[in-house]
Structure formats: C-alpha cells, structure tokens
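Researcher: Predict the fold of Translocase.
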Amino acid sequence: MLPARRRILMAAGTATCALATGYLMQQDSPYRNPNIATKPAIVSAVPAVPEQVIAANTVSEDIVLDSVQDITLTSALPDMPAPRRLPDAPFESANPERNLLDGAVLPATPQDPEVPQLGCAVTATTTSAPMASVALSVDAPCYGNQRVSVHHSGLIFTEITDEDGQLNVTIPALSENAVFVVAFGNGKGAVAMTQVPDLDQIDRVAVQWADRAGLQIHAREFGAGYGENGHVWSDATQAGQGTFTHLGRNDTFEPQLAEVYSFPRGTATQAGTVTLSIETEVTTANCGREISAQSLERRNGTPLRTRDLTLSIPGCDAAGDFLVLNNLVEDLKIAAK
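Model: Structure tokens for Translocase follow.
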C-alpha cells in the first residue's frame, strides 16, 4: 500500500515524439529497489602495447635514389669467387631452422601474427522460446569472463561470459526475421538468425539505457495498483498476464541495460488498459544528471517504433525518492478475444 501523501517535484524530460510528460516523486515507496546503481562498476583495464625499444647506439639511415640512372649494374665483383651451382634437388638441412647456402645462414621466416588460434572461434546459436522470445547461446572458448555486447533490432545490452566462454540468455524478439549479433571488445563476434512467426500475437514495450540511470518499466494491468496482482515489474511478487524481462548486467565496464514488458494480446481473456510508466529511484549515482534512454515498442503487429528520451534527474537532496514518468510510453489498449 502506497502512502496517501505524494509530493510533486519539477523535473525535465523530453521524447522526440512526445509533447508532454508528467512527473511524480514518491518518497519511501514500498517497491523501492535497493540494488539500483549501488554496485561499483568492474573496470577491466587493457594493458597498453609497449613502445618499440631502439638501442641507444643504433643509427637509422634512409637512402633515396632519385632515378634509375643512379644505379650501376655490374656482372660480378672482381675479387669474389664465382657462385657455386645449386643442386638440382631442393636442399634441405638436417636442422629445418637453418638453410645453408654457400656457408650463409638464412634467418627463419617469422610466424604470421594474424594466423588465428585453433579452437578460438566464436559461435552463436538460437532456438525458439515462449512468448515470441529467442534463446541465444554463445560459445567463445577463448573469451572466458569477458564483457560481450548483444545487438538485436536496435536493442543493445552487455553481458559477461562464464569462465568457459559460455553465455545463455533469453531475449524477447522485436522482429519476425530476428538477427542477433554478439561482439567482444576486440571486434571478434558472431551472428545468428531465426524466424519468430508468433510475434504478431505479442505487444512489446522496452526501454534501454547506459551506465547508472537505473530506469524501470512498470506495467499495471487492468487497473491494478502498485504491489497488487497485475503489477508487473522487476521485483513483482504478484503475477500478471504479461511478463517482464531484464537484459544486461550493470557490473560490467560501461554497462548497457534494458527492460522489456510483453503482453500476449493474441490470447487476452480480458479487455481494458495496461498502464505503462518509466520510473527511477533518485540515487547518488544519477542525481542531478541528465540521462539519455530509448524506448522500443511493437504493438498490434505494427512495425517496431523507437523514440529517444532525455530525462533530467532531480538533485541529490531528493535521493531515495522515486521519479515516475508518465506518458513517455503509451498505455496498451487490450481487446478480449
């Protein structure tokens, strides 16, 4: 049960396709998430490549020939013996690293540094999952415990592979011809594709952001209040007809996170409205900042729509309050089947 008293604070927020936004600050909310932006980021520093060391007595000299007239061709130097005829068969030394020709030692050919290591290929596979979702599996045996970003139809989030370089995550699909790209920091990655034929039966709203903004999607189905049956969000204790998915980990370097709400419109047994809002707790990590986010919406089988959002978080004296942003995403209108 929420406290009856609410106080309204001024805050700024814009969406490229929205005209007005309502902001409500709620203090001491029972659905406060204590984990928002409280974990320090784990920063993995990449060692710098050492500069080439040149001996102090080494002298480098460039010789430039202006034209071929500067070059004199001679048949042989008079004091040098004539070269010995090579054998007909290729000469092979007992030591493969030494090729002897007229008593000279030829240096071994350096190994090509671009030759890929065997067994280090990155692969990605997909399988169908309930609610028009896709189970993505990544196998990267040479990239254990490393940050990896996942891209799908404009949706981006960061994850960490396990010690064996494995990653398994279920992603709500945003397109019928679903393409998933996984990329590591050095540019290595993989692509996987699959068909999601039942996507038109699902209404889907997502919000994504970077760093410590700590945004949340709240869906209150058919008049449900906060904490009641039908209030669907990350810490919901009551069930609803829709489902909630959190994507990404905030304990990575430069984390990118997303939350997705999905409603099975094709099998709805009740008509009404699903009230949607984007909310965030004011913390020392985001207070007084202007943060950027993006919403992605797919409704009634229509193409995916994205909107860029800019939010001004109140000052740090409001830490602990919740900022409720109405009308940044439209409510869902559900018709019973």
